[in-house]
Amino acid sequence: MVRSIHNDSDWHHVHRQGFDLRCPVGGCPQRLIAKLSTRGRRFIAHKSGSRCGHAAPQAEGGEMTEEHLWLQNEIRELCVSLGYEAELEVGGDGNRVDVLVDSGDLFAIEVQRGSTDFTERRRRREAEGRRTIWIIPGTASPSTTSATKRGSNPLFTEPCIRLGYADRRKGRAQWIPEEQLRASVWNGGGGEVYLKAWATVGALDGDRCVFVSHILDLHAFLHQVLSGRRRWDPRPLIVGAGHGSWAGWLLDAAVDEFDAIQWSERERVRRERDAAQRAATLPVADAPKRLEGGLPSPAVNTRPAASCCGS
Fold first, then answer.
1. For residues 143 and 273, what is the distance between their CA atoms, to the nearest angstrom?
2. Radius of gyration over alpha carbons of the chain, in Å?
3. So where are the chain's domains?
4. Residue 136, Cα to own-chain centre: how many angstroms?
5. Mean pLDDT in runs of 10 for the chain (311 residues)?
6. 203: which of 47, 109, 214, 304 fits an S-S bond (Cβ 3.0–4.6 Å)?
7. What CA–CA distance (Å, rounded) separates 2 from 49?
8. Alpha-carbon gap, residue 80 to 56, rounded angstroms
9. What is the b/e burial string over 53-65, where b = at least 16 CB atoms within 10 angstroms of the residue's CB?
10. Residues 217/204, Cβ–Cβ less than 8 Å
11. How far apart are CA 13 and CA 6, in angstroms?
């Protein structure tokens, strides 16, 4: 069984009760021990006298931080609460998945705080039959998703979301500062926090017939994606306040409605254009001649006069 130091129940078992821990990498015999730092930080260390190099894995995008480890566990628990099988740290070095979820389709959920080749790693997952969800915390460096050699920002072109930490579920929620998160959340302090998906989560604005950026509870976002109701659409359909547009996660029903409105509008424009072209090709009737007085000349009756006697 894989246990997390950020899960209070797991921590009770591995720290207070002194359970024998072993490296989670398959076949590795390395023994581990749960420890608590003088500042109250939970961590796993090797038993003295040996080291395997697996216990603190190096992510492809950088070293795993307290935040990274905490998010891994939170995401796994959210997926399990939705009824799906979810495993932590699946795969070997260079091809490890933070959270692998089986919802009928396989999803590789990656927490990414450092710069990496998003496109290459996504394609590698696709070759393995896995769909990728990149989760980029708002605390990550701006260079994490800076424009690549391909000339695009992967946040807006790859299946990413920005993740925010809010202090309440609804109402006038505020983002929690990183210092507070480190002190009361990531180290197992039990601080209250609500995870939000944003930036590339789209909602249809029916009045304007455009998609706009939307903030959604991470629980609801994962529920919609894993159930197949919300998908990554590579078209730049989300429109920002500055008139820029980008790709994003859109509900299937909203995309169907959007496409139907767009088709209807194209048909209306086509019909109006065709009607104007037909009107332009119709012959223009000759105008009636006018007499000098300005009145039109009487119409000439070319039919034979009727006989008053009927002959």
1. 48
2. 33
3. 1-56, 61-200+212-235
4. 11
5. 67 67 72 64 61 51 72 93 92 80 96 89 93 93 63 88 90 86 80 92 91 96 98 95 90 95 93 91 67 54 49 43
6. 214
7. 24
8. 24
9. ebbebebbbbebb
10. no
11. 12
